[in-house]
Amino acid sequence: QKIDTLSKIRDTGVVAVLRGDSKEETSKAAVACIKGGLNAIELTFTAPHADEIIEELNRDYPNGQALIGAGTVLDASTARIAILAGAKFVVSPSFSKAVAKLCNLYSIPYIPGCMTPSDIQTALSYGSDIIKLFPAAIVGPEMISELRGPFPNVNLMATGGVTLANLKDWFDNGTTIVGVGGSLTAPAKDGDFAQVAKNAKAYRDEFNQ
Ligand code: 3PG
């Protein structure tokens, strides 16, 4: 299953990062992203009742119609809650050995946030299959190509400040996938979920080009 998850994440290219202020906003924004064609969802644990949303999305999009993961997972307890709720992958803003070990125990991909070569080396040595470069826009797309010199086989997920306008730059510099939050889901704050779906479709189209 882990191999299947990794190949699905790679194929989808753009992971939608959902960080709503309420359960309803987050859940509706996630559905809008899936409708717009972004079916890999990172449901962050700053969203209220994130575990319930993960369960509900898995129920409503069965048989691989969507790939639901958990984000902002800072400790092993949260990772366990996320995995038991059905999260297929786990993301952190930072690297946590405890989360890495827990995810390895359940054979769930762990995508930790890293900013330096030392962070990356540690995360790789704990078995992370994908490394999230975070906050990516602070360093820019060239950081990806620079890192792929000494780490030629590393799979990177640029996250933090990725937009429709710079999406191509990240992939041109060798990112494997990207994570996109605010520039995709901002209209959800005003209840405009149709616009979130349109944004998702725009990302899908840009990635497919
Ligand atoms: C987040 O922290 O919510 C993610 O890193 C997404 O960042 P973004 O909103 O800048 O895309």
Automatic annotation (TrEMBL):
Keyword terms: Carbohydrate metabolism, Lyase
Keyword Lyase set for record: yes
GO molecular function, one term: lyase activity
A Pfam family it matches: Aldolase
Pathways per UniProt: Carbohydrate acid metabolism
Classification via PROSITE patterns: ALDOLASE_KDPG_KHG_2
Annotated family: Belongs to the KHG/KDPG aldolase family.
NCBIfam families referenced in this protein's UniProt entry, alphabetically: eda, PRK06552.1
Subunit annotation: Homotrimer.
The protein's name: 2-dehydro-3-deoxy-phosphogluconate aldolase
Gene name of the encoded protein: kdgA
